[in-house]
Design a protein that fits this description.
Blueprint lengths: L2 H25 L17 E4 L2 H5 L8 E4 L10 H5 L5 E6 L26 H4 L2 E5 L5 E5 L15 E6 L15 E10 L2 E3 L9 E4 L2 E13 L2 E4 L2 E4 L2 E3 L2 E7 L2 E4 L2 E4 L3 E3 L2 E2 L3 E2 L2 E4 L2 E4 L2 E3 L2 E2 L3 E2 L5 E3 L2 E4 L2 E3 L2 E2 L3 E2 L2 E3 L2 E3 L5 E3 L2 E3 H4 L8 E3 L1 H4 L3 H4 L26 E2 L10 E2 L6 E9 L2 E5 L2 E3 L3 E6 L3 E8 L3 E7 L7 E5 L4 E9 L1 H6 L7 H24 L1
Parallel strand pairs: 1-2, 2-7, 7-10, 8-10, 9-12, 10-13, 10-14, 11-15, 12-16, 13-17, 14-18, 14-19, 15-20, 16-21, 17-22, 18-23, 19-24, 20-25, 21-26, 22-27, 23-28, 24-29, 25-30, 26-31, 27-32, 28-33, 33-34, 37-44
Antiparallel strand pairs: 3-6, 4-5, 35-36, 37-40, 38-39, 38-41, 41-43, 42-44
Helix pairs in contact: 1-9
């Protein structure tokens, strides 16, 4: 083979190898998993249009629900879930022997309790029965109406209850998200005097917001509230009107707030119980902010009672109460705190409450309570920070405009505009090998978090060995470290690419694609020179 032909083959070979080398140098190891694109905190939204839809939330307690309209007594399904139930038969398996009664005999009426001669260690102090739908109802056994004196072979007691009032079965325990969109649920009826965790939501470990429970009539035993019985989650921008009663931890809105948050909310109904009874929250071990209560509150002997909170072991800020308060250990705003609770920037009406003392807060006259200066002028005794009112009166400089005051609204007392602090979601995605830090906290691909409007955040893309940061996608910012301000939902991706130069520097045996191209050019030049010399010869 002639030398020229040989060189031609070499050039062609180098061209093929060069193309392969370029491809390897650019793409080897550079394929990334496709972003799922899913950054939602919850699943798909489940719309609630009817009472039956509301009832069916118990089928998926972690769901993401949105109320689409008002619900009330005139709407279909109300009677099925709230109506008084008269004259129907219940059966109790007493697991013992006693003289039977005839089916249909009335052994107690509404509000009565019975005593049965069973070992309390085995059966406790509660007699549980089931209604015709299989729902459990409990009644406290504390005084005798019927005494069982004779053993028989009968194991079942058939009784017919008169006016057996049970009503709504609480959604419990709720761990999802419920947005009422400022619609109302009217006429909620619950009469379960032997049952704990009573409210529209029995127990809430999720988020309930933007809903009004109107003209409610709610009664239970322990942890009873117009909206939530036991709250470990969030209740925001919501309210309850109507009467609430129970025994322990009874509140107009929330019965037992343990580590939960109650914010921008209020209750106006009368509240009664034995101990830990509050106009808004019965027992508070969480946070109450920008909220109020106006209903009368009453407790039993030795009971802790407060216009806003009965027993406070948590925090209450920017809140007030006006209702009449009565009880052995009572306060206009807070009944008892045992030295653990914190109350700031909060007030109660000494005239309407009948109380001149409270375990927290500052007492004001009715006239003062209806004066916006009480809540915005820093010369006011008990005011450390101005409340956020519409129009920024006096020392108020905040712009969320949570509060408003008008002599023709709420009897002249401050009321909530029901405008929440806006929150926006930040979503972080990662392509390639690297990590992202948000204010110094390392986050994973698909991470999301809600931030209050105007929150400023520092975000840094951190590379790993063999990779380099390329760009941010979804946001007009450059550089590995950026600063953003939350004014809308943001979905951003940190893109990392393989560091080709570093990879080639680390392996002397590899011939990068670019080098192969140079070799190809050099070979072609050499071939041209050789061709010219051959002609001369």
């Amino acid at each position: 083979m002639k030398l020229k032909e040989t060189l031609t083959l070499v050039v062609v070979g180098l061209l093929v190898v060069s193309g392969f080398g370029v491809a390897v140098g650019i793409t080897d190891g550079g394929t990334f998993e496709e972003d799922s694109g899913s950054n939602e905190l919850m699943g798909d939204v489940i719309e609630i249009h009817t009472w039956e839809d509301l009832h069916n939330m118990r089928d998926d307690l972690a769901g993401n629900y949105t109320l689409m309209n008002d619900l009330g007594p005139e709407d279909e399904g109300y009677d099925d879930h709230n109506e008084r139930r008269d004259d129907y038969t219940k059966r109790e398996d007493a697991a013992g022997f006693f003289e039977p009664w005839n089916e249909g005999d009335t052994i107690w009426n509404e509000g009565d309790t019975i005593d049965i001669p069973f070992d309390e260690d085995d059966y406790g102090s509660i007699l549980s029965v089931e209604d015709e739908d299989g729902d459990s109802i409990s009644h406290t056994i504390d005084h005798p109406i019927i005494t069982i004196e004779e053993d028989t072979d009968e194991r079942y007691l058939y009784v017919e209850y008169e006016d057996a009032l049970v009503g709504w079965l609480p959604v419990d325990p709720f761990t999802g998200s419920f947005d009422g969109q400022n619609y109302t649920i009217t006429g909620l009826y619950i009469d379960r005097p032997g049952t704990n965790d009573i409210g529209l939501f029995g127990g809430n470990c999720g988020e309930v917001r933007n809903v009004g429970v109107v003209n409610a009539d709610v009664s239970g035993d322990t942890n009873v509230g117009g909206l939530v019985g036991l709250n470990r989650g969030t209740a925001v921008n919501s309210y309850a009107t109507g009467d609430v009663s129970g025994d322990t931890n009874v509140g107009g809105l929330v019965g037992y707030n343990v580590g939960g948050t109650v914010e921008n909310s209020y209750a106006t109904g009368d509240v009664s119980g034995d101990t830990n009874v509050g106009g808004l929250v019965g027992w508070n071990g969480g946070t109450v902010t920008n909220s109020y209560a106006t209903g009368d509150v009453s407790g039993g002997d030795y009971g802790t009672v407060g216009g806003l909170v009965g027993l406070n072991l948590g925090t209450a800020v920017n809140s007030y109460a006006t209702g009449n308060v009565s009880g052995d250990y009572a306060g206009g705003l807070v009944g008892v705190d045992y030295g653990y609770g914190t109350v700031s920037n909060s007030f109660w009406d000494v005239d309407t409450s009948g109380m001149d003392t409270s375990n927290g807060g500052e007492g004001k006259t009715t006239e003062e309570m209806k004066d916006v200066a009480t809540f915005t002028d820093l010369s006011t005794e008990g005011l450390d920070e101005p409340w956020d009112f519409v129009g920024n009166p006096n020392n108020d400089t905040n712009d969320n405009e949570l509060w408003e005051i008008d002599e023709n609204t709420n009897d002249g007392y401050p009321f909530l505009t029901q405008k929440e602090e806006k929150e926006f979601q930040l979503a972080i995605n990662i392509e390639g090998e690297g990590t992202v830090e948000v204010d110094g906290q390392e986050v994973e691909d698909g991470w999301t978090k809600e931030y209050v409007e105007d929150t400023e955040l520092t975000i840094e893309a951190v590379t790993e060995d063999g990779w380099e940061f390329e760009e941010w996608q979804g946001i007009d910012e450059t550089g590995e470290e950026i600063t953003i301000t939350m004014y809308e939902d943001m979905d951003m991706t940190a893109v990392f690419g393989e560091d080709v130069e570093e990879e080639n520097d680390g392996d002397e045996d590899d011939i990068p694609g670019f080098t192969m191209v140079l070799l190809l050019v050099a070979s072609m030049i050499a071939m041209g020179i050789y061709s010219k010399k051959s002609k001369k010869l």
